[in-house]
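Standup notes
- HV: blocked on the assembly model, inputs below
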Amino acid sequence: MSKIPSPAVTTETAQFWAKANEGQLSVPQCKSCGKFHWYPRANCPFCTSDQVELKPASGKGTIYSYSVARRGKDSYVIAYVTLDEGVTMMTNIVNADGANLAIGQPVRVAMVASEDGQRVPMFEPG
Amino acid sequence: MTIKNRAFIVGAYEHPTRHAPDKSLVQLHAEVAIGAIADAGLNKSDIDAYYFAGDASGLSTMSMVDYLNLKVRHVDSTETGGTSYLIHVAHAAQAIAAGKCNAALITLAGRPRSEGSSGAVPRVLGDASPEAQWEAPFSATTVNLYALCAQRHMHEFGTTAEQLAWIKVAASHHAQHNPNAMLKNVVTVDEVLASPMIASPLHRLECCVVSDGGGALIVARPEIANALKRPKVAVLGAGEAIKGQNGGEIDLMTSGAAVAGPAAFAEAGVKPSDIKYASIYDSFTITVLMQLEDLGFCKKGEGGKFVADGNLISGVGKLPFNTDGGGLCSNHPSNRGGMTKVIEAVRQLRGEAHPALQVKNCDLALAQGTGGRLGSRHGSATLIMERQ
């Protein structure tokens, strides 16, 4: 697989990405309304509260949808994965044959290093 | 306040070029502006409003107004990708109804073909764009974000690759009559499915073309429309919506057309079965299918059955669509198809479509746009127009 573009980390999201480098996928949860959201942000997109905290995610989910796409000569799988926490996030499926994937299939997080070393949350069958 | 019958599309012009390496971007804007003003039978001095979507970085409404040397008292630079121009028509009608302007010029132009653009390559988002860091690492592209919708639609509703291919087949039947179309050959379902897979389940022939070109429209108050010699095309109703990821509670099976469509039908006072001709944004086959469902031309999940067997072919099926060949075959200037959607609807309402494809007694038409990425966040707009 060719190089993975690194995320442009901001002060708003630095904590999430630091935890990712420790191998931890976290999901933001609002302390005011109790809801999880994706992608991470400082204010809850549902109730607007700024009382948002990053919770360690189980790292487990299922494929909501996927597409086997080409990047030059390589192929890769872009997907939406619905986490056990309830939110659906964009990601890549790795360590899998695209022809054998299915919507609804269980997957688990696999942190993969991007171009500048920052680890990003991808998923593999499991 | 309603816009119903408060404004008319009096000028429409599509640039014939599909490849313009020898023209500058602003030059194309000027050529389509001149074309639309001439089509209306107006003078440049009659234009007192300008609408522009920022078709290329570095261009602003101010520099465009100055380049074209317009004297305007109203401007709008609403940017919702390829659907911007449908929203511009609606906003121009609102401004006219509010007395803010008399005649609005809307232009679109672009040179993505000359510049080597591709929807299969990740588009670089500015780092300040809030979603960039959550999507760029995964190589999200225009085509694979639409493919996610197609894959899910097949899973939830049993939609087949053959059914999606019928959308392209219908467009190709229309494009054979358009001398300016990039792809004029009639294709079969088998040929669509034999074309290379770009992002599963979407094949190359299910993707729109990359073309240079542009188009322009003039929207004017009733007094101006009445004084001109062109057939009158009234704006009856409009709706717009932005749909995104909803904080992670993602639903890829409904597009913004489910909001924009009903709003437009309610304002126009008509229903989907009244529509004689529909321009449906066709960046990809799945775009058409989902919009048809969300507009109410068929039930959710039954789009595959609805588009199959030539139902979208003029003179053959129940809902003639994109009789210019659309983005799938004719052109997609600036990677934005909303302008040409409105232009072909105006041609049909004026009775100026190709004779082989002109819908009989075409007095009510719809144009529908989806800009951005159906699978992440997109703008949606519906426009209903009537010949009067």
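- HV (later): unblocked. The radius of gyration of chain B is 19 Å. The mean pLDDT of chain B is 96.
- Next: hand off to the docking folks.
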